[in-house]
Design goal:
Elements lengths: L3 E7 L11 E6 L8 E6 L4 E2 L4 E7 L4 E7 L15 E11 L9 E6 L13 E4 L4
Antiparallel strand pairs: 1-2, 1-7, 2-3, 3-4, 5-6, 7-8, 7-9
Length: about 130
């Protein structure tokens, strides 16, 4: 419960709050599959139902595996070619209801911007490369 992954992208890589960006969250309602995905920004927010995703609990310690395939256009990217750089941030939220972290919320961040600040000025650079 309370576990989720949030991420945001800004296609123009301008690191400014006045430039359009997209923010999403994926989670397991009630802690069990199937997953739910929501667009949190731009407003109006809403549920997303066109992604292929798997979010499943693994192991005995509350570990969760996230895999998602989403259309580039949902991140505002219209030309996803090698060399394209865009801004991105991700936070993995983990909130235990029992055990040694009882009641605590822990996070793993890849750049700032979608955690507490909700500001793309804290996003980092991602450059697409050939596989």
């Amino acid at each position: 419960m309370g576990d989720s992954i949030e991420f945001g992208a800004q296609p123009e890589n301008r690191l400014a709050s006045a430039v359009p960006y997209w923010e999403f969250e994926l989670y397991l309602p009630g802690g069990q599959p199937p997953y739910a995905a929501s667009r949190r920004f731009p407003l109006p927010s809403g549920m997303v139902d066109n992604w292929r995703a798997t979010i499943r609990p693994t192991g005995e310690r509350g570990n969760v595996n996230y895999q998602v395939v989403l259309p580039w256009k949902d991140l505002g990217l219209t030309a996803p070619v090698p060399g394209k750089t865009f801004s991105f941030a991700l936070v993995l939220n983990h909130a235990d209801t029992s055990g040694r972290f009882f009641g605590d919320r822990t996070r793993a961040r890849w750049f700032e911007g979608v955690d507490n600040t909700k500001n793309p000025e804290g996003f980092g650079d991602v450059t697409l490369v050939e596989p």
